[in-house]
């Protein structure tokens, strides 16, 4: 029999239904794996007791013949950006020291209602700001694929702990959040599937905010089908979030038919960047071939404002963050570093409590909003955002989905790319435009580079059309036959 | 009646603009479901949203939106069917989010106007610049502990309407009249209780001065949080005089925030607030533009109550009241309703006189509002009826009124029980007149000799004999007949 | 766009972040290099383009005026680093 920790959600769902094993057994297997895999530093807080209790509840439901949710008994990791009632929630920051929310985020509550079992809180870049999971106060996360190259690799970020946990089989699946690529880029680096839904698909209530107009929660899973199942459990309109879309949650799994015949897939020429890694180009070309073979029409499209997406993002996101992070002031929760006056206390607390990258972004955001610079930076960025959004609108007149690489490289070593912040920001060059336009994007593992490290391809869809990109992604997944797991030979 | 500050270099005039924060009457807060009641235990009317817990999000209360529209209509203002909420960023202990959700570039209400009723009976118009919705802050208590300030967030997030006037006022009286009128309007509309003592209406005063006759706008100083009409007027007087002195000594007025000291009636600079203010407003990404149909505005407009200005016009036109009396009566909605109940079926001018001269005196003696007045409108109306139909004289009516203040009784019952009914029976009056003439031989002589003043002595005798109940007109008439006048 | 030390100091104060004097210069350098890179946005002609604050294509939802929350003093205060008698406390503020 397959190891319990190698099962997908879809497979475990059938096996649990067939009573081949219990949710408790499945959870115990993951708790062991989680403990054995601590060198990855994928979790900030492990919650085995919570996990076992929920697993037992799941088994009870099944025994009683009660309602079985779509994620019933599935052990998952929760990115430590989701507030979880009674469980330490850190956002990877010193400033949230000891913070135990008296409330549960809507998405984690939805997952719990669907029967999911929380194994623990996954590591992340501090306040989700980063692309390598090296800015966490709780230390860097190691990519499970590190063994392939004999050096410690980053898992990507900011959902690096989630990606590493799924890839290293320390969780069956994990929640992530994506502001500019924080689900898709680590998914690509770790060889898993990561889906950023349409803005408004999943509630932001109870998720520590980074940039409110961009943040979206989404699933990180082993397979495309698992992503569809998990997204269905996470999504739904939430009246507590004014930006939550009042739309029905479709059956995403049903959208995965494997039939993509006649769909038109756009290839944006602006994503062919100067000096692009030939291996990335090759895997992209391969993706095109697979889709052609599956009966898709391939069409070149133009997204002319692409080049300006990253600098736009690095105004919009820090500006929003500078206000969103003002509440961490040492008064109501978290760290307080004493001071002689109120201002002293604020400055000491925020000076010690925030790490360097977070401080840098708060300062950039503060500057971009400040008197005399607001029009030149913030308003300018918002106008460019309109152009980027219009680019996609025009493209989607002609195509059903857009295929691009997920990231410009495979996972790099811990400690690399750290000196120049802008070089680090370039990791998100392919994912940020989608975020700015609020569109869904999925990263699916498509192959390995010459070092044996995974590379992902991204599919971008129309707003609220996650179904199409899930379906197309499943075709790539099948064609790629991506079976390799870290630690196994390719 | 312009207000002039006599300086050494000449006459100066003052330019005043007011920013008034009105707490909106609603059950729940602007962006959270916590209650808005005043005076609860600390931090009990606080939701996790108000305490700015991580990941908490605002959702707007539709009632607060309607209240703002209603107030805007009451100010004859333009209603913007699309408006935008922005974050105003600053750090303070009673501002948990580190920003206030307010409206900046696109407020819900645009330009309007307000008519001032001035003490001399004249009126003038002051422009309204805008009205916007925003969150109130919490409260800091500085005197609980020597080293610490205590923070209560109960008020945090209660909806405020900030109403900004144009710099159209030219005297402390203008400012006082503006505040009284604004309070009257919001109380008529039931959008704010207008209670300045409890802080549900608070005023920031912008003052600048300029040589009389000039139309320049000089640098203004803002005095924050002045909490009574009288203090606002004092603050303006002091601030105008201070600024004139600064200019006349060759100085420049600096744009700054000042505090009013109620003890001394003066303002002082809040230097602590002078450090680098930059609010960095930007559209709140947790909220989308607030958009509603014109139909909602029309609906609210159709349901507006009669407002003080219209009511005043009606009193002048229909009841023939003077503008001053009409203005006094309409200022408070409850008073106006009381007056109308008294006037119902009676002479409106007489009703107005009784309410203004007698009822107001009672209320001020007892320190109560019209709703607690011991004399009900119904009873006062009955008393007016007794005067009109000659059951009692005006003089007796005053006595009856005194009893009504004490007992709250029906005047008809009082007149009945105390036997105060006016004597109109000619026979009874004639008997008393005859008796007075019989007892006053000397006075009869004087009268006949042409001293008509002595008639008063006879009237006095008759009234004494009838305990004041004889109808004075009849007494006079009979006396003159019998004395051969 | 180059930021000087004083500007960084001022922004850091607006953001209430303590930055050591010795860190101001290197931080000014880092921030300036980010801003230089962002500067490329100025190449784009955006005249007449509406700024986009949100991608959500909907109007602001409104809730009913009903008290549904609050009355949870314990939950509100339980994570506070310092508090007394139902209040949060901060270093004394002098106005």
Find the biggest chain interface.
A-C, 72 and 52 residues
Distance between the termini of chain A: 21 Å
Low-confidence segments of chain A? none
Q: Supply the helix-strand structural class of chain C.
A: alpha+beta
The helix fraction of chain A, in percent, is 25-40%
Shape of chain C: flat
Number of strands of chain A: 11
State the secondary-structure class of chain A.
alpha/beta
Rounded to an integer, what's the Rg of chain C over CA atoms? 22 Å
Listing every helix as H and every strand as E from the N terminus to the C terminus, the arrangement of chain C reads HHEHEE
Give the overall pLDDT of chain C as a whole number: 94
User: Number of folding domains of chain A?
Assistant: 1
Radius of gyration of chain A: 21 Å
CATH superfamily of chain A: Amidase signature (AS) domain
Question: How helical, in percent, are the residues of chain C?
Answer: 25-40%
Compute the number of helices of chain C. Answer: 3
Task: Describe how the helices and strands are arranged.
The complex is a heterotrimer of chains A (490), B (485) and C (95).
Chain A (H helix, E strand, L loop, with lengths): L8 H9 L5 H14 L6 E4 L1 H17 L10 E5 L26 H8 L3 E6 L23 H4 L10 H8 L5 E6 L5 H7 L2 E4 L19 E6 L2 H11 L17 H4 L8 E5 L9 H16 L3 E5 L7 H16 L17 H12 L2 H14 L5 H21 L5 E5 L15 H5 L6 H6 L3 E8 L5 E8 L4 H15 L10
Parallel strand pairs in A: 2-3, 2-4, 7-8, 7-9
Antiparallel strand pairs in A: 1-3, 4-6, 5-6, 5-10, 9-11, 10-11
Chain B lengths: L4 E2 L4 E13 L36 E2 H13 L7 E2 L2 E4 L9 E4 L9 E6 L5 E13 L3 E3 L6 E5 L6 E7 L6 H18 L11 E11 L9 E6 L2 H20 L8 E5 L4 E4 L12 E2 L6 E2 L2 H9 L5 H12 L3 H8 L2 H11 L4 H19 L10 H12 L5 H14 L3 H8 L7 H14 L1 H8 L6 H11 L6 H11 L3
Parallel strand pairs in B: 13-14
Antiparallel strand pairs in B: 1-2, 2-11, 2-12, 4-17, 5-6, 5-16, 7-8, 8-11, 9-10, 12-13, 14-15
Chain C lengths: L4 H10 L6 H18 L23 E2 L9 H5 L5 E2 L2 E5 L4
Antiparallel strand pairs in C: 2-3
Structural commentary:
The complex is a heterotrimer of chains A (490), B (485) and C (95). Chain A has 490 residues and is an alpha/beta fold. Chain A has a single domain, classed as Amidase signature (AS) enzymes. Chain A has 17 helices and eleven strands. In chain A, α6 runs parallel beside α7. Chain A is globular, with a radius of gyration of 21 Å. Chain B has 485 residues and is an alpha+beta fold. Chain B has three domains: 296 residues, no CATH class; 113 residues, no CATH class; 57 residues, Arc Repressor Mutant, subunit A, CATH 1.10.10.410. In chain B, 39% of the residues lie in helices and 19% in strands. Chain B contains 15 helices and 17 strands. In chain B, the strands form four sheets. In chain B, strands 1, 2, 7, 8, 11, 12, 13, 14 and 15 form a nine-stranded mixed sheet that branches. Chain B has a three-stranded antiparallel sheet with strand order 6-5-16, with no helix packed on it. Chain B has a two-stranded antiparallel sheet with strand order 4-17. In chain B, α3 links the parallel β13 and β14. In chain B, α5 crosses α6, α7 packs across α8 and α12 packs across α14. The longest helix of chain B has 20 residues. In chain B, 45% of the residues are buried. Chain C is an alpha+beta fold and 95 residues long. Chain C has a domain of 39 residues. Chain C is built from three helices and three strands. In chain C, strands 2-3 form a two-stranded antiparallel ribbon. In chain C, a hairpin with a 2-residue loop joins β2 and β3. The longest helix of chain C has 18 residues. Chains A and C meet through α11, α12, α13 and α14 of A and α1, α2 and β3 of C.
